[in-house]
Amino acid sequence: MDATGTEYGTLIVGATCAGLGYACARPEDSLLVESSALVGWEFVEAMDPGSGWAAAVGLGMETDELRRELQARNILDGERVHLPAVAPVLFNRLKESGLPYRFWTDVLEVRDRGAEFEVVLFDAGGRRTVRVNRILDTTTHLVSVHEAPVRIESKAIGATLNRMDRPAPLPAAACNGGWRVQEGRFPGEAFLALALPPEADWPAARARLHEFWMDRPAGLRPWHLVAVGTRLAEKPAWVDSPSDRWQALPSARFENVLEAFAAGAAKAAECEALV
Q: Measured between alpha carbons, how far is residue 262 from residues 18, 21, 50, 67, 192 in Å?
């Protein structure tokens, strides 16, 4: 607690890649809260490898260190990434940062008190209130802003595919058919993304995937569907932040893990310059 009685400088909402980028760059006065127990979920749990990994260089010291670690651990090679292994690396960076974090924690209410915010949190221990100078909401649906729903520009359901019999080229994606396949880091590993209407919910998404897979194109017949994302890959529209001190930075807007992580670190640098 600082001299003004504010408990934390920044409340980071969401253990997204952008949220973790901010956390690792500015751990000394921040608190991170996450409604699940997962990190980097907007990419990892959605089984969405994104794109543009090879171009995500020179984005800052923290991001370059993350890239080198992913490469050293044989998780990333060019555009090919072994997505499930990204989450443990991100979680370890959060742990080593020393920043306090609270999983299974929801934001119930934000009260603007002028010089600070009072934020009501809820977890297994019940309700508690923290006072913060700033809020950075990195979630897809901006869960700290309860008044206005976020418009989703695009949505897809992701899955991991596997083919062990022999190396084979991936089938060409049918863009007009609403699906694409990307290579994973290792032979026989690939990621499928099947486009959905923005209003689709989980039952509709699973039904669409089942229908597609049962009648999948010939090029996908030798492949096995081994896992389905536990979250939908959603791209939210950019929204105006509630205020200069309560900012929106939806991590899912960025093209890949590194780009989102860099955006969070850059936002931390902005806050540092204002202090």
A: 7, 6, 15, 11, 26
Nearest of 182, 185, 179 to residue 213 by alpha carbon: 179
Closest to 256 (Cα-Cα) out of 37, 50, 45, 23? 50
Q: Has residue 1 been placed in a domain?
A: no
DSSP H or E segment with residue 71: helix 61-72
Question: Please, are residues 7 and 1 in contact by the beta-carbon 8 Å criterion?
Answer: yes
Which residue in 116, 171, 153 sits closest to 4, CA to CA?
116
What pTM did the predictor assign? 0.92
Range of the domain at 53: 8-148+237-274
Q: What's the pLDDT tens digit per position in 200-241?
A: 999 999 999 999 999 998 889 989 999 999 999 999 998 888
How many domains does the chain divide into?
A: 2
Do residues 113 and 246 share a domain? yes
Phi-psi region of 110 (alpha: psi -120 to 50; beta: other; left: phi over 0): beta
- Give the helix/strand (H/E) hosting 271: helix 257-274
Where b means 16+ CB within 10 Å and e means fewer, 211-241 reads ebbeeeeeebeebeeeebbebbbbbbeeeeb
